Structures are given as C-alpha cells and as structure tokens.
C-alpha cells in the first residue's frame, strides 16, 4: 500500500500541473478574444478577481494569463501594479495598421488560391451579420463579425504561423476599434460597395492581387477616421 501511495503522488501532481496550465491557456484565449473584438477598451484597468469570476475559474490562471500578455506587450503595468489595456498614441496604431496591411494583404492573396465556395459563403454570412449589427446599432456584434471576417481570410490562407501573427496584431489593435463608434456620429459610413464585398468578389475570381488590394483598402480606409480620434 505504501508503494502505491508513493507512485500515485507524482502522477497526481502532474495532472494538477496540466490542469492549471490548461486553465491558464483558456483564460489567456478568452481575455485575448475580448481584446481582439474591442470588448476591452484602451485605458481600462483589468481586475483579475472579476475576470476569474466571469470565467468561472480561480484567480491564479487568470493572473498567469494577464502576466503573459504583459510580457507580450499586449497589456501593461500601471502605477500600483495594476494591469491595464494600453492607451497608446496615434503613431502606435499607425504602426500596427501598417503591419496589418502587409500581413493581411499576403493572407488575402494566398487565400484566393485555395479558398472553397463554402469558405466564401462563411465570409459572406459574417459580413451580412456585420451589416445587420451596424444597422441595428449593435456595434459589439459588428466588431465581432469584422474580426471574424479578417481572421477567416487569414485562416483560409493555409499558413498557420501567419494566422498567429494576424491574431496577435488584432489583440493589440482590437481595443482601438471602440473609437470607431465612440461618439455621436456612430460608425462611419464607409464605402459603397463595402470593401468586404470587393474582397469576396476577388476571392471568387481567384484574383490574389485584387484580394490583396481590397483588404488593404479596407484596413486603411476603415481606420482613417480613427487616427484623428487618437492622441498624438
């Protein structure tokens, strides 16, 4: 019996470690998604206990996830050891936008070579939901669908490492997107036809260059009004 107890000890500890690591990763993914869709706003202080309660987990995995994001530069420490969503100046958003143009442009070009009809239909459904969200002033829905549309294109490129780069860029850019409708004018009018429609038309034609140009246009024009609302 004594030998069995000794053998069981390390196994139980190993399972505990795996479980905690899994919870930390789940918390990381949930918090990152909230950043990507603009649910968390620039300058917002993050309360680990509140997040843990919302996620239905203990504080430890949430704290580990937050610290990992601080190390990645997605979140930052402020005075008093509080963790906040960064509120960087205009030049930082401009830098992120410039990188997105290159990376998402490549993703769209590659996606045009391999995307299926079902994949295009999925993008079309996301865009339709985005349009509905804007029409009903449900900007949370619109932001979630916009993020899913862009990540959907990156996924269709069939380049897992590129996809992770796009995810990381959206985690840093997402909080800025609240400023798109944070004012009396609401969401900007945008283009007609919407640049998402131009992207999908290019994907249907298997025209990589046109798909790249359309997604670049979407990123640049979509953020044009945002730049003027950010601090220097």
From TrEMBL:
Q: Which domain of life is it from?
A: Bacteria
Name the UniProt key words of this record, in alphabetical order: DNA-binding, Transcription, Transcription regulation
Sorted alphabetically, which PROSITE patterns does this protein's record hold? HTH_GNTR
Q: Where are the transmembrane segments?
A: none
Where would I find the HTH gntR-type domain in this sequence? 21-88
Q: Which Pfam families does the entry link to?
A: FCD (PF07729), GntR (PF00392)
Q: Could you tell me which SMART domains the record lists for this protein?
A: FCD, HTH_GNTR
- Keyword hit for Transcription: yes
Family annotation (Gene3D superfamilies): GntR ligand-binding domain-like, Winged helix-like DNA-binding domain superfamily/Winged helix DNA-binding domain
Q: Which PANTHER family match?
A: HTH-TYPE TRANSCRIPTIONAL REGULATOR MCBR (PTHR43537:SF39), TRANSCRIPTIONAL REGULATOR, GNTR FAMILY (PTHR43537)
What name does UniProt use for this protein? GntR family transcriptional regulator
Tell me the classification of the organism that encodes this protein. Bacteria, Pseudomonadati, Pseudomonadota, Alphaproteobacteria, Acetobacterales
């Amino acid at each position: 019996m004594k030998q069995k107890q000794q053998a069981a000890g390390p196994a139980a500890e190993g399972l505990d470690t795996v479980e905690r690591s899994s919870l930390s990763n789940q918390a990381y993914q949930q918090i990152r998604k909230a950043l990507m869709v603009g649910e968390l706003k620039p300058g917002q202080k993050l309360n680990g206990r509140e997040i843990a309660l919302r996620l239905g987990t203990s504080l430890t995995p949430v704290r580990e996830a937050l610290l990992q994001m601080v190390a990645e530069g997605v979140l930052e420490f402020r005075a008093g050891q509080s963790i906040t969503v960064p509120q960087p100046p205009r030049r930082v958003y401009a830098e992120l936008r410039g990188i997105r143009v290159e990376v998402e442009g490549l993703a769209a070009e590659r996606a045009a070579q391999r995307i299926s009809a079902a994949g295009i239909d999925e993008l079309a459904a996301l865009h339709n939901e985005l349009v509905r969200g804007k029409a009903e002033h449900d900007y949370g829905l619109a932001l979630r669908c916009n993020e899913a549309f862009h990540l959907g294109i990156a996924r269709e490129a069939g380049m897992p490492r590129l996809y992770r780069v796009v995810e990381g860029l959206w985690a840093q850019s997402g909080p800025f997107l609240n400023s798109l409708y944070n004012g009396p004018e609401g969401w900007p009018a945008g283009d007609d036809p919407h640049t998402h429609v131009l992207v999908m038309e290019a994907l249907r034609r298997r025209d990589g260059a046109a798909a790249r140009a359309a997604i670049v246009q979407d990123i640049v024009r979509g953020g044009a009004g945002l730049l003027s609302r950010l601090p220097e």
